[in-house]
Amino acid sequence: MTQLAENLELEGAGYRDHDGAEMLRVSDLHAFYGESHILHGVDLDVKRGELVTLLGRNGAGRSTTLKAIMSLVGRRTGSIVINGTETLAMKPHRIPRLGVGYCPEERGIFASLDVEENLLLPPTVRSGGMSLDEIYEMFPNLYERRRSQGTRLSGGEQQMLAMARILRTGARLLLLDEITEGLAPVIVQALGEVLIKLKARGMTIVLVEQNFRFAAPLADRHFVMEHGRIVEEISAAELPGRRDHLNQLLGV
Amino acid sequence: MTMIFGVPLAVFMGQLLLGLINGAFYALLSLGLAVIFGLLKIVNFAHGAQYMLGAFAALLGFRYLGINYWVALLLVPLVVGALGMLIERLLLRRIAHLDHLYGLLLTFGLALIFEGALVNFFGVSGASYPIPPALQGGVNLGFMFLPIYRGWVLVAALAVCLFTWFMIERTRLGAYLRAGTENPALMQAFGVNVPLLITLTYGFGVALAAFAGVLAAPLYPVSPTMGSSLLIVVFAVVVIGGMGSILGAVLTGLAMGLIEGLTKVYYPEAANTVIFLVMILVLLLRPAGLFGKEA
Questions:
Q1: Measured between alpha carbons, how far is A70 from A72 in angstroms, rounded to an integer?
Q2: Is residue B4 domain-resident?
Q3: Cβ contacts (< 8 Å) between A70 and chain B: which residues?
Q4: Would you tell me how many other CB atoms lie within 10 Å of the CB of residue B98?
Q5: Which DSSP category does A211 fall into?
Q6: Which of A41, A168, A184, B50 could in theory staple to B209 by disulfide, Cβ–Cβ 3.0 to 4.6 A?
Q7: Domain count across chain B
Q8: How many helices (H) and strands (E) does chain B have?
Q9: DSSP A84
Q10: Rounded to an integer, what is the distance from CA B42 to the centroid of its chain?
Q11: How high is the ipTM of this complex?
């Protein structure tokens, strides 16, 4: 039985980080849902251990960029290189095995599974993931509610769960979509602390964020999207001088 | 003689047992249908034909290859399940992106082809399959006479239902199935090979039907049309139970068998329609089914 479960999961051994190299390079990425053309040539790169944000207004294509990386959109053209491997022609279930963890905007907590089953669900994609104990230490609430139905948790707890379950898998590149959306300030602050810890562990993180005040102190670089492409790249050092310009782009 | 509402106890219990055994078949078949529908979203109209193929494989294996009942009970579900996987891989997968009605039509067509082909070779009269020697005879329970084979069918069917429940609710593979039923795209994004999971699930559902077919072979005439008449009742059972729950499919199957049996005792004229009356009532009062989750 376990054997069968493992066959569904893994042949993804032999994975190595390329030291100091790019974790992710997206070039001229176009994405389509049916007839509608959503991404119009996205270019971005993320170095290993970096935390970058994708900023922009609603509908700018930020979530679609993450989905396109995970091959969750209809059709894609261009190039997506993850840790040295071109993934455009890969089957969708092979992409996570390159060490990618994805946290969707709608969180995707499974109602038919309890909290611990939700946590244990995503297959291990490489060694070095956090143990269940470590995860419960980082998210004590989840331990207390481990036997509850996944969707009975509060919004904040569901978000913690959606994050925690990809930390167990050993993923080194995390794609996080709007993780602070609709959450109370105290929980947003707790999520910020989690991101700092993950960065200290050497994780590479791409953060799609609406809440710029949350993202600004955490990020190394910001990419601003508009109409399905990247229109601006701003490093953390440049940020103070370009704040007004950025506010204008984001329409805040 | 003890009477229950004007019916002798032995007659009453006998009909109850018949009802329970029918119910066990309803449970096995509706379980497979529910599992397949959950992940593939296809109403598997070939389910009755796959049950019939199970019975026929046992019969032909016995006649021409000398495969005994016990071996058939293990081997036939594997062979017919493998055929199911082939059907999924070669046919159903190609239309998975289309409206699910096409899946229904395709499986309905397959059922007609299987039935038609076997009618062509064997006719519709049906053949009998001998009860295995170890399960012949019966025991007198005091209040009724229990044919051993019928008792065995009940035990075996319930054991397989329990095994299926355990697999789906308590194992990692089952968690994949439940999660895949809810959100297959996200499962792919976690690195689960969802197409393989779908093939295995369809194969498993078909194997359940074939297992029921082997169990049924010594009880009912083995004929190419034995599945299609049963399937209509099984669809009603699935509607009554709701697509949501494994336990619901099993309990509803047994309960409907019992209700049918009781109706045979007290108002035989309605025995063939009572399940459909229950279905209408359930649809009026709880459209998602007794165990189904409201959408």
A1: 5
A2: no
A3: 188-189
A4: 10
A5: -
A6: B50
A7: 1
A8: 11, 4
A9: T
A10: 16
A11: 0.84
Residue of A104, A112, A120 lying closest to B178 (CB–CB) = A112
Fold for A2-10+21-250, please state it: Rossmann fold (3.40.50)
Query: Residue B162 in 3-state DSSP?
Result: helix
**The pair of three-digit structure tokens given for residue A4, joined into one six-digit string:** 């069968």
Distance CA B21, CA B254 (A): 8
For chain B, how far is it from start to end, CA to CA, in angstroms?
Answer: 51
Buried b (16+ CB within 10 A) or exposed e, A48-57: bbbbbbbbbe
Q: How many CB atoms lie within 10 A of CB A247?
A: 11
Of A10, A93, A120, the CB nearest to B194: A93
* Rounded Cα gap, residues B55 and B67, in angstroms: 13
Residue B43, domain extent: 13-285
Contact state of B189 with A121 under an 8 Å Cβ cutoff: no
Q: Is B295 inside any structural domain?
A: no
Hey, what amino acid is at B263? T
3-state SS assignment for residue B290: coil
Using a CB-CB cut-off of 8 Å, the residues of chain B touching A125 are 191
Tell me the C-alpha distance between B271 and B264, whole Å.
5
**Single pTM value for the model:** 0.85
| pLDDT per residue as tens, chain A (252 positions) | 555 655 565 444 444 444 568 899 999 999 998 889 999 999 999 999 999 999 998 889 999 999 999 999 989 999 999 999 999 999 999 999 999 999 999 999 998 899 999 999 999 888 888 889 999 988 888 999 989 988 888 888 999 999 999 999 999 999 999 999 889 899 899 899 999 999 998 999 999 998 888 998 999 999 999 999 999 999 988 888 888 888 888 876
Q: Do A71 and B188 touch (CB under 8 A)?
A: yes
CATH number of the domain to which B262 belongs: 1.10.3470
> Does residue B7 sit within a domain?
no
In angstroms, what separates the C-alpha of B197 from chain A's closest C-alpha?
A: 7
B interface residues, A as partner, C-beta within 8 Å: 167, 171-173, 175-176, 178-179, 181-183, 185-186, 188-194, 196-197, 200
B119-B123-B126 Cα angle (round to 5): 110
Domain locations in chain A as residue ranges: 2-10+21-250
Q: What is the CA radius of gyration of chain B?
A: 19
In a domain, B6, yes or no: no
CA B181 to chain A, closest CA, distance in angstroms equals 9
DSSP B23: H
> How close B68 gets to chain A, by Cα (Å)?
28
Distance from CA of B196 to the nearest CA of A (A): 7
Q: Which amino acid does the sequence have at A72?
A: L
Listed in sequence order, the residues at least 6 apart from A35 whose beta carbon sits closer than 8 Å to its beta carbon are none
